[in-house]
Amino acid sequence: MINGKKSSERIKEALQSIGLPWSYMLFRGRTYIDEEGQEHEVKPPFLVYYGAGQEKASADNTHYWSQDIYNVEYYFDDKSETNEERIEAALLAAGFQYEKSEDVYLDDEDLFAIYYYLG
Question: Are 26 and 48 in contact (CB under 8 A)?
Fold first, then answer.
């Protein structure tokens, strides 16, 4: 926990602050509801996040700490360093350290992706 908030709360707040459509794991159907309750078709750029396990520290049968791990995937069709900077600033402001992948082209989707591995 950081500032009394679980990782799951912090990641949701961070993604909300970026201003791009986001969802846990996948978008059901091809629409999403924005913060004003309006329905929109999902088009790039958008974000998906999901739980990726848990880190733990223990020794001598004593559990010292654990932290949930999340991954964030940024999908886009046009490169925007501004969007990347907004994503990275939001993650850092929420207390997440991350590793960032290279731009990955997804043939099946005709999209690009960048993967953020949060620690």
Answer: yes
| pLDDT (tens digit per residue) in 70-86 | 999 999 999 999 999 99
**Which whole number is the average pLDDT over 41-47?**
92
Q: Which of 68, 35, 77 is nearest to 49 (CA)?
A: 68
Domain count, the chain: 1
DSSP 75: E
User: Is 12:5 a contact under the CB 8 Å cutoff?
Assistant: no
What length is written for the chain? 119
- Say how far apart CA 38 and CA 103 lie, in whole Å: 31
The CATH number covering residue 107 comes to 3.30.2000
Q: Is residue 101 part of a domain?
A: yes
- 62 within some domain: no
Domain that residue 106 falls in: 7-55+67-118
pTM: 0.84
Tell me the β-bridge partners of 76.
Answer: 112
Helix (H, G, I), strand (E, B) or coil at 35: coil
Element (H, E) at 112: strand 111-118
